[in-house]
Structures are given as C-alpha cells and as structure tokens.
C-alpha cells in the first residue's frame, strides 16, 4: 500500500528550483499533488515564496501564482520538510567538468543532506534521481550514499529510482503535461509502482527499466538529437557552396518516414544546458572505458565550428575593425532566457577579438548574457539594436526578428532562417 496523503495524492519534495525542479514541482501540483521545492539559495527561495518565478518559461508564472494561492505548493530552505512527504526528486545541476565528465558535487551535497533527514524519518520513502546523470550513477553513487548517510536499508526503508526528464526549454510545462513517453528506472517493484502512480493520469507509453537503462535512455536521446543537428548543419554547409537551399533539402528528406522532419533545421548550431553537456558526458564516460566514439566527438566539433561561419560570411562583405555589429538573439533558443552554451557567445567573442563594437538584443536573455559580457552595448529593442549598425547577425529565432522592414538595406547574416532581406546571407542557404 502506498504511503500518501489522505486525499490519495502524494506529498512530494523537489530538491532544486532550476528549470527541471521548478517545472516538475509545479506540474505535479497541477496533477493534484502537494509539493515543496527546497533550495539552498536564500534569495531564490524568497523570490519563489513572493510569487516571482526566478526563470522565464512559458506558463510557469501562471502555475506558480495558482498553486501558491491554493496552498498546494511552497518553497523552503529547510530539508526537514522531507519528513512530511512521501517521495523526493533530486533535480540539482550536474554541469560539465573541464574533461567533459559530469560534476556530481551538487548531487552529492543534496543526497547527503536528504539522507541525514531520512535517518530521522519513520516509514518508507522513495528517492528519485531526475537530474541528468551518466549511466550507473543512481545505482553506484546515489543509492550507496543514501544508505551510508541515513543508516537505512535499501530498498526496504528507502526506495531509489531514476526518472529522467525530457523537457525542452521554452516548452517545458507543455512537455511535462503532454509527454511522448515516461521512463521509470527502478530496481524493485515497490519503488517503481510508487513512481508510476504519480503519472497514472497520462496515456503515453510508460517504460519500466533498470535505473542504469533509464539514465542511458536520457543521454542517448540527447546525443541522437544533437547528432541530427550537426548532420544537417554539415549538409547545409555543402549546400551553401552549391547554391542549394538546405531548407528545401531538409523538407525532402524529412518526408522519408524513416528519417522524419524533427531537428532538421540547419543553422548556427545547438546550445543550452542539455545537448552539449550530455554529449560531452557520454563521451567522457566512453573514454574512461577505453572506447573512442568518433561520431560523438564529431558532433561536438561541428557544433563548435558552425557559429564561426557567421563571422566568415560577414567578413566576406566588410572588415570588422571599428564596425558596429548588431547581434539579435542571445538565448540559445527562443522562448527562454537561458544563455548556457548559446552560439552567440562564440560569435560575440570573435567579433570583439576582431575589433568590432557589439550591440546586442534579446527579448529575455540580456540580463543573463550581460553576466558574461558586461561591457558590450545592450539595446532595449530590436529596432534600436539595428539602428546605425554596419551589419546584423541573427542568432536566435525570435518571431520579432522576422520583420523585413526592420533591416532596411543593412547587411543581414541570418543564422536561423527567420527573415529574407534584399541585402542578405543565410548561413546554409
């Protein structure tokens, strides 16, 4: 029998209030569960308690307002909140180290803190790893740490599972509420059934596997998608030289049901917190095992070179020293304020190294980007950014950048295929 609240819905702790943690917590509230999000960052918790979402994600603020108001959700600094819940999700960051491997320090701290509280809890509790980790971390790192720090027996007193997320920034709330699959990795039936109960209202396939398999499914999914992007970008580079529009090529090959249309948008490359990190992480793991995955390395190599083609195309038209270049788009993709691994970073750095003056704009990402480049000029609007610039680089496919009249006769180098002007170069078309 499941230990849950009297309403039949579960009481959930989420450790971490980033994209995954906050979205997961609020979406579980939307499904009828009671959720507390725990974080160690006081200012972040205070902002959430005050009703201010600390990140931009479509629909997130509305969910925060709703579930703070109805009492189903709250945020806290206190790990003792775990004592009043049935299940805990670990949603902390696992950033890349210099060698590409994942830094597990945040996961270790969160797991230790959680285990110290669980040592005092009576009854059964489930711990779910939702942070993206390389295969075997749940079984060989998290589970032993929970057992040693809590003194509890696994899985009798603490059940451990992996339940990877497949959320796209910019549509994370929709992705959670309308998943194409749910993957639950549990080593025992009791734990797996308790996690599965959270998703009982969903009609999508639920795949029940081992924790290590679940971790690999997550990483392999992102490697596969990143590979498609680098592949179409390489094809696009060839198309450019042959005066072929790669977008028409992508449409043609995407009609093949064996290939499909998704992730065939050629451009300046991929960024964000998932694709680069996960490819690097799996590459580092393979290297530790003595395996040399040539394709995964090539995926990253193509992605590092691709945005610099924007600079090459620009320099075919004008020298950069002393010129003012407008950069439109700083977030790694539209509908988010996340600039992690944004392709704009390499482009802005290259422009500055070549003596150009950079004026930038992004509807959501300027505050985060200014932490990386505090000394460039930031414009309040796309129109202000383009005004008096010698050329324009489009780095993110925000809809407002698609207005042709915005650019006049200025040279436009388009890295995302959002517009077509009279004085125009597309990166792969």
Provide structural commentary.
The strands form two sheets. Strands 3-2-1-4-5-6-7-8 form an eight-stranded mixed sheet, with helices on both faces. Strands 11-10-9-12-13-14 form a six-stranded parallel sheet. The chain has 429 residues and is an alpha/beta fold. It is built from 15 helices and 14 strands. The model is unreliable at 1-7 (pLDDT under 50). The protein folds into three domains: 11-208, Rossmann fold, CATH 3.40.50.720; 219-305, N-(1-d-carboxylethyl)-l-norvaline Dehydrogenase, domain 2 (Orthogonal Bundle), CATH 1.10.1040.10; 308-426, Rossmann fold, CATH 3.40.50.720. α1 (19-30) crosses α3 and α8 crosses α11.
Q: What's the SSE pattern?
A: EHEHHEEHEHEHEHEHHHHHEHEHEHEEE
Going by CATH, the architecture of the largest domain would be 3-Layer(aba) Sandwich
Rg over C-alpha atoms, rounded to the nearest angstrom: 23 Å
Q: How many independent structural domains?
A: 3
Could you give me the name of the CATH homologous superfamily of the largest domain?
NAD(P)-binding Rossmann-like Domain
